[in-house]
Amino acid sequence: MNTSYKMILVLTIISTLSGGRYCDWDTYTSKKIDEYRQQESRQAVKEVLPETDEEKVKEAGDFTFYVGYKDGEIKGVAFVAEGGGFQDIISLMVGVTPDFSEFTGITVLSQKETPGLGTKIANDPSREGCETWFIDQFRGKNTGNLTYVKNQKANGDSEIEAITGATISSKAVITILNETVPTAKSSFESINQ
User: Fold this and answer.
1) Range of the domain at 153
2) Number of folded domains in the chain?
3) Which segments in the chain show pLDDT lower than 70?
4) Would 4 be classed as within a structural domain?
C-alpha cells in the first residue's frame, strides 16, 4: 500500500465520520431552533396584539395569520412581513386591526442591518428609556401608504420619522409594510368569506 492511497483512505474515513457527526448534531439542534422560533413568534404576537387573550392560527396563501380574540370577539390580526433591507432580509411581525386599517403594533423578528445604524429599527440604545421608539411609532398609524420624514417629527396618520443615518433601513420597513399589508388583507378576506 503506497502513501498516497493510505492518505486518501484516512481522509475518506475522517470525512465520513465527521459528516455523520455533523448530521447527528444538526438533527438535534434543528429541533431546538424550531422550538425557539415558535416561542419567539408567540411572544411577538402578544407584543403586536396586546389587547387579546387568545390567538387562533389560520393559513391562507403565503401567510400564517394569528387572529387575536378577547371575550370571543376578534380584536386584531398578526402576520409576518418580510422584505429586503439595506444588508439582508428584514422580518417583521405585524399586528393590525381586524379590518386591516390600522397598526396595533410591529416588532422586528430578524434583521442584519448595519450595526449601530440600521439595527436601530429594532433597538436604539441612544434613546435611553425609549429604545424601541422607531417601531413604537407605527402603533395607531393607518396602514395605507405610509411615508417617512427625515430630521423632523412625524405628523399625520401615515407618516413615520426615519432614523437619522439609517434612512434606507427606515424606508425598507415602510416599503415592506406598504407592499405586504394589502396582500395580507386580500388573503385574510379569502378565508373569511
Assistant:
1) 45-191
2) 1
3) 1, 192-193
4) no
Predicted pLDDT at 128 = 78
Cell readout for 152 is 423632523
pLDDT of residue 3: 84
Q: What is the pTM of this model?
A: 0.79
Does residue 18 lie in a domain region? Answer: no
Q: Is 92 a member of any domain?
A: yes
Report the C-alpha gap between 14 and 7 in whole angstroms. Answer: 11
Give the pLDDT of residue 160.
87
